[in-house]
Amino acid sequence: MNEGTAPRRARAIALISAIAIVMAIVMGTLSVTRVGADTGDPMSVVKGLVNPALALLKNDQLTLAQKGAQMRQLVSDAFDYTEMSRSALGYHWKTLTSDQQAAFTGLFTSFIQDSYLNKIQDYKGQTVTFIKWSMDYPGYAQVKTTINEPNGGSPIPLNYLLKLENGNWKIYDVTVDAISIIANYRNQFNRVINDKGFPTLMDELRAKRNQLAGSLGNSANN
Amino acid sequence: MISEMKTIGDGWPARSLLTWLAATAATLLIIAAFLTTPALCAGNETAPGSGGPDASAPPGPPPDQLNGGQPYGDPLAPFNEQMFKFNLNLDKYVVLPVAKGWAAIAPVPVRQSVSNFFDNVGVIPRFANNLFQLRLQAANDEVMRFAINTTLGVGGLFDVADSWFGLKENKDDFGLTLGHYGVPPGPYLVLPFFGPSTIRDTAGMFADGAMNPLDYLTPWYVYIPANATRYALSGINYRSLHLNLFEEVDRYAIDLYGSVQDAYMQNRAAEQKRIDEGSLL
Q1: Which residue in A195, A1, A112 sits closest to B180, CA to CA?
Q2: ipTM score of the complex?
Q3: What is the mean pLDDT of residues B34-51?
Q4: Which of A175, A188, A212 sits opposite B259 (nearest CB)?
Q5: Whole-prediction pTM
Q6: Digit-coded pLDDT (tens) for A128-175
Q7: How many CB pairs lie under 8 A apart between chains A and B?
Q8: Do the Cβ atoms of B169 and B134 come closer than 8 Å?
Q9: Directed axis angle between helix A42-58 and helix A64-78, to 10°?
Q10: Cα–Cα nearest to B61, from B71, B53, B51, B52
Q11: Which of B262, B264, B273 to probe by mutation at the A interface, max A CB count within 10 Å?
């Protein structure tokens, strides 16, 4: 376990510095007009999602629909839906036409958002502890948090996985108790596609999305 | 620490004898597993070094959480799906109604104490497997926890080892021991009554069951019903503490079987990682 760590770390550091140098050169030559494009670190991206979301959840002045609309805005900025969709379909992604990929991405995006909004209804005063962030691979980071139950139950580890895209950190997966949500959907989608085909997956995903949206009292758009 | 372990061992000759018996049996099993591992691996589709996806581990995207992004093989799917349905029906018509009834008469602290009691009773496989994996601190902690919780914790009803002494439970089982020494999980297997497992973890479950002293001290017509009752009661009590167990998953799942399968596999992989990192071997 241990003997590989030092060279690997050395290589990782070398790579990160190489990438940093290349990026610095590229940025230096290109970004005369974009000096202020400060992207922040992964932790601030996650805090920028979670803290406003918690404030929104605690806000008694807003209706659920208003909360939903604002939450949708927050969530749409922080996540990389294309990456999530591609990852959730696994090797099936490449077998689809670009139209099918676009249709799936649109549907999966609204499915994820409606799932997230449904979770809002369960909110019972949980707090979030931000533990640390780490960059285990160049361009990929992990932010560790815990969800603390108000009644003092054991805290639930919830980690955000982020990817650097065009200078912005975007969340592409969330793990709850070490279980990757996107990987979990991938296994489900893989089974449905193999057993019943891609169109059936679209039908079932749409039905579930509508069910989730319906329990919010929202009307679905697509 | 070690002297305390010794005292407990000396005071309980029957238990140390049984632990020794279990250890011997388990060691034989490990050796058997080692001998059969090449045979098990021979069936895999990709031999190591045949230019697989992680041939040189290039820098880039992190390895996927799940099986390298590959779907699980599920050769036993027809059987598994039937068992999954059986378990869901068992839960719906028997376990959940009883658990709800139990939840209605017993407040959460009582049910938590029942859960603590069953946890405390299951110390032997936890201790033995931590020892097999050379997780000596964890094994020692399990002995300490048992001693503290059985006495100060009123027969295991209260987990004071955790709340007063900060000694956390070290979950462990023989499936993880086999995994630690390189035995692959084998095909996914859904067991009636017991739920998701794999071939390896099922074998591990039997090995852990064989460490129960009751099985050696009483005749079969006592220990079989006793074990079944213990399992049923702890299962119902667990469900009473997690009344939304499936409902919450099903609400967001497209394919419940696939979701439970993946959750089991990911959870076991995470447990294995935790075990391997804490081991001296």
Answers
A1: A1
A2: 0.76
A3: 37
A4: A188
A5: 0.76
A6: 999 999 988 888 999 999 999 887 778 889 999 999 988 899 999 999
A7: 87
A8: no
A9: 180
A10: B53
A11: B262
